[in-house]
Write a structure and sequence with these properties.
The structure holds 2 protein chains of 2 kinds. By secondary structure, chain A is of the alpha+beta class. Chain A has helices at about 1-75, 80-85, 115-130, 180-190, 255-330, 340-365, 380-395, 415-435, 490-500; strands at about 90-95, 105, 140, 145-155, 155-165, 170-175, 205-210, 215-220, 235, 245-250, 375-380, 400-405, 410-415, 440-445, 450-455, 505-510, 515-520. Chain A has a domain at about 375-520: Heat Shock Protein 90 (2-Layer Sandwich). The radius of gyration of chain A is 55 Å and the shape is rod-shaped. The model of chain A is unreliable at about 135-140 (pLDDT under 50). Chain B is α/β, with parallel strands linked by helices. Chain B has 3 domains: about 30-60 and about 245-345, Immunoglobulin-like; about 60-245, Rossmann fold (3-Layer(aba) Sandwich); about 350-445, no CATH class. Chain B has 12 helices and 16 strands. In chain B, the strands form 3 sheets. Chain B has a 6-stranded mixed beta sheet with strand order 2-16-15-10-13-12. Chain B has a 6-stranded mixed beta sheet with strand order 6-5-4-7-8-9, sandwiched between helices. In chain B, strands 1-3-14-11 form a 4-stranded antiparallel beta sheet, covered by helices on one side. In chain B, strand 5 and strand 6 form a beta hairpin. In chain B, helix 9 packs parallel to helix 11 (about 400-415). The longest helix of chain B has 24 residues, at about 1-25. The chains are: A alpha+beta, B alpha/beta. The interface of A and B includes residues 115, 179, 194, 222 and 225 of A.
Chain lengths: ~525, ~450
């Protein structure tokens, strides 16, 4: 079953190729989808971070308002300032500058307490700048003048100084107690909800972390605990004066991957479903095909069986018919008489039957790959002559003139049965379809290794478009059974046999009638000995 | 008629005296004294001024000031197991001391903070118990954030007529957020300005005692070293007992030294020295308990027979029982004598003992620093020296307290090897704090 392997490959190709295309396109789609999902997620995370940043912004706005009132109202004498510093939890130190930048408080020439001395040591450089009020970031025009934040790094880290230029030109500044403003920031940011509340988006545990300029966590909240050293999914800088810090968003990467994985899952299921469908369809078609082939085989085998069965009685009929003929001849019965005429018909018909059965058997054998060539030394022209003689009566009855141009007289290796069968089919066709032409011409020619036989008739011929079709089995140019008898396999058999014999049978173009050209490989016999 | 007028006058005075007496019974008692009431003449001298405050007895539970307390519990990974169970049990048990007028909040922290029970009046104890029972341990330690959130809860119902307090329990080292003693101390100081004290309970041998002590010290809270979780119940009890016996809050002491007198430094307490003015703040005074501030002063050369004013002291505070702001004042002078003997005989032994205690404390702190740097031998030597100093003074000043401390010092000097040091250091810090703040010691059975 050499066909099966080829078909097998084809089958797999039919299944896999579209599948591969779908998979490739689907992969790209899934990738894009995932990318989009990630973008959307990042936007969502960005919003959450912005919520936190907004909380911070509001907090500092409120703080600024409080500090504005404070700096506006405080007395500039040491007593008042020290009292305020002692009692206000937010304040670490305060200072007052003249418009020209000289220190009013703490007065370096006066009696300072330890804290004030330390403050001057740490922050002294601030006051060296004459145009100190040039603040670092947000400077807003308040009712009395400009106020704003100054950010300085010393000690444990970020320090915030709020200052305000009064209408008098003096500047009043507040150094915030670092631990306190950080604690207030923590107090105003959310705690970890327990258990997580309804604002959990898509049940994805997350954490937001506020880190300082060194990346150290200041405060964090959320149900998710990120592993040591894992990177944030999204970052945002808080508003001034905390802009050197960062708000970071963490979530379970695995869970996120699962979210994006939805697209891949879709892809996979699509591919799987399609693959399955294709496989099933393919399997079904394959099965159908096999069934058809099997049935065809069974039919062939049946035909073969039948033909074999028919062959034996037929052989007997022919044999006894021929025996009877020779008996009658010996008995001197008149050859032109009716008995012998009837017998001739019996012989002819049985020969025809023989030929038909032969065709079927050949067809069957060919289908099963069992066709074999059996060559022996013979003269092709003699074979042709025998066939022509056999057909003589039938052709004569239809007034078809037979012309034989001998050209293959050499002794060659040839399968006589094959040649007989081919010629038989061709002449049978002439008898069936081209009898109206009243003539058939058989010409043989021989080259070194080949023999060519041309069978030409003067009948209606074959239209050019059907020239190849005639060679297909079961094809008759007219399906009207009454019009032309026959099984429709004759020419196909003939071609198969011709090709088996190392040649071919073709229908050559001709102006009138059909012209069949047979070519077979016939190597010359080495010895000319023997008849 | 004269007789009835007299009678009325007498009755009137008696009534007023009676009233004054009663009022006086609820007032803080101020006592200013000198280590050396008599100084040597003819040379500059150094001595110590003691400003002592004794809180009036707080009457029974019916009229005590209501409490506004936040429990901040460490639930980091190190607390898993018996520790968290004991902590929870202790907290639940201690809540039985409070009534429906009190406000409680419960905050837990590991790497992040959860508000288990936001500040509410203690109306439903069962609910509170349930919430506490549901706490599970695991994670790192955001101690600063826990205290911040706890303070925020207290702030919701901040009331000068309440005792506002955060009670922090931790067994580990802060590692998320600000984690230095300096930062925690600063936070404590800023909370004290609002009237919130933080009491710190250190559980086990792995907590950061410097951090916990600083936080308590600068917020005027208590500090406890709780070695075994089984002692937690008694410790919480003690802490709540304290909170319920606050007689005065927002205590402000102003010492104005007379001209020529130079204030040098305060012993064992933080304060502000502006020229000749010294300002000290305490967050609370407990009923029946004395707290004091010791100020070292330099007295200029004076003549024999002279009496010199040393300082005027003013104290203001919020009286928790009368709900008034009371003010007290007192002054002190010193006398000069040429005889060393006389000066010696007149030494105020009680004040002197307290000064010795504070000075010894400072030396102990130095010893701890030496041991931290690996200089074990020097540390040991200093502790032993201190022990000698203490026991000598114990004899001279007839002080049991100093004698006990001398023995403690000897014990500490023997606990400097690596296996013992963790424990010794915590005990040392705890004792130093107890002395510096005149903290009421736990009954002996709890810290064995």
């Amino acid at each position: 079953m050499a066909l099966t392997r080829k078909h097998g490959i084809l089958f797999w190709l039919i299944v896999c190729l579209p599948l591969a295309v779908i998979a490739a396109l689907g992969w790209r789609l899934a990738r894009e989808e995932q990318g989009l999902a990630r973008q959307r997620l990042r936007a969502l995370l960005g919003v959450r971070l912005q919520d936190a940043a907004l909380v911070l912004e509001n907090h500092f706005d409120e703080l600024e308002r409080g500090l504005d009132a404070l700096t506006e109202s405080v007395g500039h004498d040491a007593e008042s300032i020290r009292r305020l510093v002692r009692s206000d939890p937010r304040i670490a130190q305060m200072f007052v500058l003249e418009a020209d930048g000289t220190l009013v408080h703490p007065d370096p020439r006066g009696a300072l307490n330890d804290a004030e001395r330390r403050f001057l040591a740490d922050a002294g450089d601030l006051f060296l700048h004459r145009d100190f009020i040039r603040t670092d970031g947000d400077a807003s025009e308040g009712p009395a003048g400009r106020s704003g934040w100054v950010v300085r790094f010393w000690g444990p880290g970020l320090n915030l100084i709020y200052n305000r230029r009064l209408a008098s030109g003096r500047v009043v500044g507040v150094l915030l107690q670092r631990a306190r403003w950080i604690a207030e920031v923590i107090a105003v940011l959310p705690a970890t909800a327990e258990p997580p509340g309804p604002d959990r988006e898509r049940s994805l545990p997350s954490r937001i972390r506020l880190v300082d300029s060194h990346g150290q966590s200041i405060y964090e909240w959320g149900a998710f605990a990120p592993t040591e050293g894992s990177a944030a999914l999204e970052e945002l800088a808080p508003p001034f004066p905390l802009s050197s810090w960062r708000l970071q968003y963490f979530a379970d990467d695995a869970a996120l991957a699962v979210a994006g994985r939805g697209a891949y899952f879709n892809l996979l299921s699509l591919v799987a479903a399609t693959g399955l469908a294709l496989l099933m369809a393919g399997a079904w078609f394959f099965r159908e095909y096999h069934r058809q082939v099997r049935e065809a085989m069974e039919r062939v085998s049946f035909a073969n069986q039948v033909s074999h069965e028919l062959k034996t009685p037929l052989t007997n009929i022919r044999m006894y018919a021929e025996l009877l003929e020779s008996d009658l001849e010996e008995a001197g019965v008149d050859p032109s008489g009716r008995p012998r005429g009837h017998l001739k018909v019996i012989v002819e018909e049985s020969q025809r039957l023989s030929r038909l059965i032969g065709n079927v058997l050949t067809f069957a054998r060919e289908q099963r790959g069992q066709l074999r060539l059996r060559v022996r030394p013979a003269v092709v022209d003699n074979v042709i002559a025998v066939v022509l003689e056999r057909f003589g009566p039938a052709l004569g009855r239809r007034q078809v003139e037979v012309a034989f141009g001998r050209g293959a007289g050499a002794r060659v290796e040839v399968d006589v049965d094959v040649v007989e069968q081919i010629l038989g089919n061709l002449l049978s066709n002439v008898e069936k379809y081209a009898a109206s032409g009243k003539r058939v011409e058989v010409v043989s020619r021989q080259t070194k290794g080949h023999t060519e036989i041309t069978v030409r008739d003067a009948g209606p011929g074959v239209p050019p478009r059907h020239r190849e079709r005639v060679f297909r089995p079961f094809q008759r140019l007219s399906d009207d059974i009454s019009e032309s008898p026959g099984t429709g396999i004759g020419l196909s058999i003939a071609r198969q046999l011709a090709r088996l014999h190392g040649g071919d049978l073709r229908l050559a173009p001709s102006e009138r009638g059909a012209r069949f050209e047979l070519r077979i490989a016939t190597p010359r016999c080495e010895s000319e000995a023997g008849a | 008629m004269f007789r009835s007028q007299n009678a009325v006058a007498v009755v009137g005075m008696l009534v007023v005296a009676g009233l004054c007496g009663r009022a006086a019974a609820k007032q803080v008692k101020l006592d200013v004294s000198l280590a050396h009431p008599t100084l040597l003449a003819g040379a500059p001298q150094t001595t110590y001024v003691k400003v002592g405050l004794i809180g009036p007895a707080v009457s029974s539970a019916g009229r005590r000031a209501p409490v506004n307390v936040a429990l901040v519990l460490d639930k980091s990974g190190s607390m898993t197991g018996t520790k968290i169970v004991q902590a929870k049990n202790a907290a639940i048990h201690a809540l039985d001391r409070l009534n429906e007028n009190d406000i409680v909040s419960v905050i837990v922290y590991d790497a992040s903070v959860q508000i288990v029970v936001p500040a509410t009046k203690l109306t439903d104890k069962a609910e509170l118990r349930r919430a506490i029972a549901g706490i599970e341990a695991g994670g790192s330690t955001a101690l600063f954030a826990g205290v911040s959130k706890g303070a925020a809860e207290v702030r919701k119902f901040l009331d000068r007529n309440r005792v506002n307090r955060v009670i922090l329990l931790s067994d580990g080292r802060a590692n998320v957020g600000p984690s230095t003693p300096g930062m925690l101390g600063d936070l404590g100081a800023s909370l004290m300005k609002e009237g919130i004290s933080v009491s710190t309970l250190g559980l086990g041998l792995d907590y950061n005692e410097d951090l916990m002590v600083e936080l308590a010290r600068r917020s005027d809270g208590n500090h406890m070293f709780v070695e075994a979780a089984t002692a937690l119940a008694a410790v919480f009890d003690h802490e709540f007992q304290d909170a319920l016996s606050v007689a005065a809050q927002e205590v402000a002491i102003t010492i104005r030294c007379a001209p020529g007198i130079r204030p040098v430094r305060l012993l064992g307490i933080d304060g502000e020295i502006n020229g000749r003015e010294v300002i000290v703040r305490l967050n609370q005074l407990y009923g029946g308990q004395e707290k004091y501030a010791l100020l070292e002063i330099e007295v200029p050369e004076s003549e024999a027979g002279q009496t010199r004013p040393i300082a005027d002291v003013e104290v203001s505070y919020a009286n928790m029982q009368t709900k008034t702001t009371d003010q007290l004042s007192s002054g002190i002078s010193v006398y000069f004598d040429p005889s060393t003997r006389v000066v010696q005989d007149r030494v105020n032994v009680k004040v002197m003992a307290e000064c010795v205690l504070q000075i010894a404390n400072e030396r102990n702190e130095q010893a701890v620093a030496l041991r931290d740097r690996g200089q074990t031998q020097q540390a040991k030597a200093l502790l032993e020296l201190n022990a000698t100093y203490l026991s000598q003074n114990a004899l001279e000043l007839k002080s049991d307290k100093l004698q006990k401390r001398a023995m403690d010092n000897v014990e500490q000097s023997q606990g400097l090897d690596p296996e013992e040091w963790k424990r010794t250091r915590k005990i040392s810090r705890y004792l130093q704090y107890e002395d510096a703040r005149q903290q009421r010691a736990l009954p002996p059975s709890t810290n064995d």
